[in-house]
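Extended Data, panel c. Modelled sequence:
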Amino acid sequence: MSEKKCDPVILKGIGASPGVVIGPAFLLDYHKVKILRRQIEISEIDQEKERFAKAVSEAENQIKQLIAEIPEELREHSGIFEAHLLMLKDRAVYDRTLKLISEEKINAEWALNKALDHVRGLFEQVKDQYIRERIEDFEYVVRRVQKLLSGSPSVDLSQLEEPVILVAHDLSPADTIQMAKEKILAFVIDMGSRTSHTAILGRSLGLPVVVGLENAMSSILSGEILIVDGLHGDVVVNPDAELLRHYREKQEDYIRYRLDVIQYSNLPAETRDGLRFKIKANIEFLEEISSVISNGAEGIGLYRTEVLYLAHKELPTEEDLFLACKEVAERMSPFPTTIRTLDIGGDKFLSSVSLDDETNPALGLRAIRLCLKESNLFHTQLRAILRASAYGDVKIIFPLISGRSEIIQVKEHLEKTKDNLRREGIPFDEDIKIGIMIEVPSAVLLADVLAREVDFFSIGTNDLIQYSLAIDRGNEYVAHLYEPLHPGVLRMIYRIIEAAHEAGIEAAICGEMAGEPMYLPVLIGMGLDELSMNALDIPKIKRMIRMSNQNRCSALVRDLLEYSTAQKIRGHLLDFLTSDFPGEFDLDHGLYPDFVGRDAIPGPLMTERCLPY
C-alpha cells in the first residue's frame, strides 16, 4: 500500500521579526517535564525543602555560568538573565513553594507548580497584554528548576550540525544565547508575541520569527520542510512546488528590499524640499540598543521603564534604575535619550505598593497620578534619571498629564530631588530638559498653556486615540472603531503641533502612527519635528521621507482637515499615496512596500494533514 502524500498546511501566527526562509524543522520538545503529585510524610518535609533549595541553587549557578559564557556580540542580553536570577528567589514563587510543601505535605515539584499557577493568576488579572506576557519569564525559571528536580535531560543547541528552523512551544533567552547561531534559520514558536524576549532576540540576531502559533509543535514533524514568513506570520508545512516558487520570489523581493532600504539608515531624514526630521527609536529592553544604532536612530525618543518594575515582587531600587538609565545614556551618546517616568497603574505590577482595586484602572490611579501620590516611588525614579544625566544627553518625559497643576507639582518634585542631589554632591545635568506626553483630550485643549511649562511635547497617539474616541483597542466589539484618521484625531494632532511651535518648543510623536508609512505624509504636512518608532521601521521611514515633498504634504493636510469623516480622509490620502509614491505601496495589502504585497497564497488553505499518530 503506497504511503499517503501529505498536503501543504499553512499555520497562522504573529510575524515578530521580518524575513522569509525555507528549511528543515527541528523540534525542541525538552520543555515537557512530567510533574506528578506525591503526598509526603511529616518526617520528609525538611528533606523535600532541602531538595527544592538545592535545585534552585543549582539553577542559579547554571544561569551565572550562562552569563559568564555569553559571546561578546550578545553581551547586551545579559540583563534578561540577571532578572531570571532575581526571579529564582522571588517570594511569590520561592517562599510559597516552601510554604506549600509544609502546609499541604506535597513534593517539591507539585508545590512549585502550584506556586507558579498562583503567580500566573496574578498576571492574568492585568489588562495590559505586554505585562501579562512577562509570565513567560517566570515559567522559564520554574521550568529550569523543575528539570533539575526531575532529572530531565537537556538539549544542547550549540551542537547543531545543519541549518534548521527551530520549532518550540516556547524558547527561553538562554536557549537563544546558547544555540549555534549560524545553524539557525528562523524561530517558530507556539507562545509569545512581538514583545516577548524571543521576538526581540530574534530581531537582534536578524532571524525571521513567527510566534503565537499555538499548535506548531503538534502540527510539525522534525525534518519536514518549512517556509517561514516572519512579516505576515505564515508558516507553511510541507510546501508543494507552487508554494516554494511563490515564497522564493517573495524571499528575493525581501532581500532586494532590505538591501535597498538599509542604505537609508544613516542618511538624514530630509524631504526633497529641505525639511529635516529627527528620527528616534522607542525601546523597552537594553538589548534593543544595538538594533537602534544599526538602523540609524538619532537617539531614543522613548525609553519605557515599566519593564524594570514588572519582574519582581519588590520595587526596583534607585541603583537598579540608575544603572539601566546610565547604560542607555552612555551607549546612545552623543545622541539624546528621553526617559519616561513610570506609566502603569497599581493594578499592573507586583510590588510592595499597596493600592485598592479600581473599577476602571485605565481612568484611575496610573502614570503621573500614581507617582504624585506615591512620592517616594517618584523620587526614586527622578534621582536615578538625574544621576544618569551625568553620563549622556538625557531628557525626562512625564506621561498622562491632564492639566497645568500636575506639571507644577512635577516640577516641584524635580527641584526638590535636584536640591537633595546637590547637597549630597552627586553630579547631574542642571539644565536637563523636561517634556510631557500629550495623550488625553484635556491636554490637547490646554496645549498652549502646557507648552509654556515644558521644553518639548511628545504625542502618544495610542492612548490619545483611545481616550478621545472612548475605544478600548483590546475589546473585540469596538476595536474596529479605533481610527487614527478620524477627523477629530487629526485636528487634535494639528492643534498640539501648532501650540508647541507657537511657544517655541518641539513636538514629537512616539505612538504607533510614527512608524506607519501610510500616515507619514500627514505628519510631515502638519510640521512635526520628530518621530520615534520601533527601530526596524526607521530605514523605511527615512526612505519615504526622502521621497516626500513638504509643500505637497502641507497642501494634503489642508485638504484633509476640511473633511468630516474618516472614510473621506482615507480615500483622499490613498489617492495622494498613489500619485506621489507610485509603485511604493500595494493598496490592497496594508500599504506597505511592494514586496510585502506579495502575500496572496496560491491554492486552498489546508487545515488538516496526515500525521503518523
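The chain has three domains: 9-30+155-260, 42-150, 272-597. This feature is highlighted in the accompanying rendering.
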